[in-house]
Design goal:
The chain has 387 residues and is of the alpha/beta class. It contains 16 helices and 14 strands.
């Protein structure tokens, strides 16, 4: 539930603002402060998603409140309330970090649109922080086989550029890992990497998910919402299983790549975006083009660099190293001691047909760590990892 603080010394205006906000959205929880000092005291003690703050107030004016709040909780968006003589100061507050300003007396539509957009920005900031923490993890590609060595070399060359990359390979081979490694080694690594699983989103919702929507664009669109492309601005967007994307969404992605612009569903307003696109698929996109299920022009836009991730059956020499890596990782996650695997156990696992690739191997190693003996033996593998 969004929490909003209204800091306004004029009682009548403060009550009007509170009434407008609470009647517009029953989910808004609106708090009040009668002056700047009281407002800062509340900001110190409470968590707010947005602050509406008058500029001219006794004791502590709006500029001072904005500067003080920035030192305490810098992520709270501020919308300043300005009288007719305060426009220059209102512009100054935006240079100091305010999201926007509205004039007195407040125009209903202008106020509500500004509040909705400011709250959307707050959500994007939170999402970006969460994703930056996730990106802060170190992603490793385990193995020294020819196929993996070639991928590592390509990543070293391609990552520092903004070239679009298409990652191909069967399910479970590690396409997502390649995408993360490209982002981690790029100039955009300090910005978010936004992941979109195109196969997991219903076709009728994929455009809204990617590009956002405006209130009323469709039945369930109760407020404006930013999409993944906006969230990924200055960073990377990873379009996983892009072969499952609808043709209409493909057309919009093509426009985004051509013009660096997107528009929210239900809006004709263009929004500029600066996004690096990495896509992945387990399908043969050239066959999908022949079937009329994938746009050829989009394929050529995406496939500037193609990185193919080999199946585990094609890199069996990496299995001993992968077993050792997963053993340590799983043991740490489960609060157990890592287990050694006997030579015969490893050899037997190398002979298996790994239709589920790396993902399947990790699951088998986890099973053996939990159920196997102090040292995982050949008989443990035959008993617990049978196909």
């Amino acid at each position: 539930m969004p929490r909003i603080l209204v800091i306004e010394d004029e009682v009548a205006i403060r009550r009007v603002l509170v009434k407008i906000l609470t009647e517009e959205n029953k989910e808004y929880e609106v708090d009040e402060a009668e002056d700047g000092l009281a407002g800062i005291d509340k900001i110190k003690k409470e968590e707010y998603d947005l602050v509406l703050c008058d500029i001219k107030m006794p004791k502590m004016d709006g500029v001072e409140v904005l500067e003080a709040a920035a030192a305490i909780k810098p992520d709270i968006p501020f919308v300043m309330i300005s009288g007719h003589g305060d426009l220059d100061t209102a512009v100054q507050t935006m240079r100091l970090g305010a999201y926007d300003y509205i004039s007195k007396p407040p125009d209903l539509n202008r106020l509500l649109n500004t509040v909705r957009n400011a709250l959307d920005k707050k959500e994007l900031v939170k999402e970006n922080k969460r994703l930056k923490k996730k990106v802060g993890k170190h992603y490793e590609m385990i193995g020294e086989s020819d196929g993996i060595s070639r991928i590592k070399e390509m990543i070293e060359k391609v990552a520092p550029t903004d070239a679009r990359v298409l990652v191909t390979g069967a399910n479970g081979t590690g396409k997502e890992l390649v995408a993360h490694w490209l982002h981690e080694k790029s100039e955009r690594s300090k910005e978010p990497m936004i992941e979109v699983n195109c196969a997991a989103i219903p076709g009728e919702l994929i455009e809204s998910e990617l590009f956002g929507h405006v209130k009323g664009a469709f039945t369930s669109a109760v407020k404006d919402r930013a999409g993944k492309f906006e969230a990924a601005n200055k960073g990377t967007i990873f379009l996983d299983e892009i072969g499952d994307m609808s043709l209409s969404a493909q057309a919009k992605v093509l426009r985004a790549l051509q013009e660096n612009k997107i528009s929210r569903v239900g809006s004709d307003k263009d929004i500029k975006v600066d996004v690096r696109v990495i896509a992945a698929t387990n399908k043969d996109l050239k066959q999908e083009i022949e079937k009329g299920k994938f746009r050829e022009d989009l394929y050529h836009r995406l496939a500037v660099i193609i990185i193919h991730v080999p199946s585990l059956n094609d890199r069996r020499g990496d299995i001993p190293e992968l077993i050792s890596y997963f053993s340590a990782k799983v043991a740490a996650e489960q609060g157990m001691q890592p287990k050694a695997f006997s030579e015969k156990a490893v050899k037997l696992l190398q002979e298996y047909d790994w239709t589920g690739n790396i993902r399947e191997l990790r699951n088998v190693v986890e099973r053996l760590i939990i159920l196997g003996g102090d040292e995982v033996s050949e008989s443990d593998v035959e008993l617990f990892a049978s196909k």
